[in-house]
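dumping this here before i forget
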Amino acid sequence: MLIVQKYGGTSLMDTDRVRVAAQRAVDAVKAGDRIVVVVSAQGKTTDQMVNNAREITDSLSAREMDAYLASGEQMSASLMVMMLHSLGQKAVSLTGWQAGLLTDSVHGNARVKGLTNDRIRKELDEGNIVVVAGFQGINEAGDITTLGRGGSDTTAVALAALLGADLCRIYTDVDGVYDKDPRKFPDAVRFDRISYRDMLVLAQSGAQVLHDRSVELAMQYRVPVQVLSSFRPGPGTMVID
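structure:
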């Protein structure tokens, strides 16, 4: 199977967590799957970068902020590949534009339009795990764009759709989709399965487990999405028709 795995900032907070994620990808390859990994910036990197920029000026250029903030995910992608290499696994990191992720030109909140090249497929055919920097793409003018809040979720689902992947696995700090926030409500109930439409309602109501744009893409392209914990085993929640 072709599987897209996505890891958020919490899942990549430190070297130990990067190692766990990398080992999971290696294990999937050993089981016979082809793997594309999408990564967010580590921890609170993006928040810190925004704060740094605001110390310079309150009149932030949207274009330059996109070019600046995209580097957080690029660092994660390269670090993940270094870890994969240390585990004896062939791997390559790609920025959003190297991967060919074409977007519109709305800086800071761009929408995905398609893929402009076959780089990911070629790297997979050479036996690599392909690690793609999430949250970013390139517009038709050749400028870096970012996809807004939850943009790495959107990257993962978009790539799964555009590559015809069998499954998109979103690894996060909760073990699935709940009817309410399990970190605040002990009686929260986890769904084994939830429809795209119901997941979209939850996302638009403020549930942070998946970004609403990623759910819209999954529904449009019928991408099966599995929400799983990065920290403990379990079946998670399938988001599907």
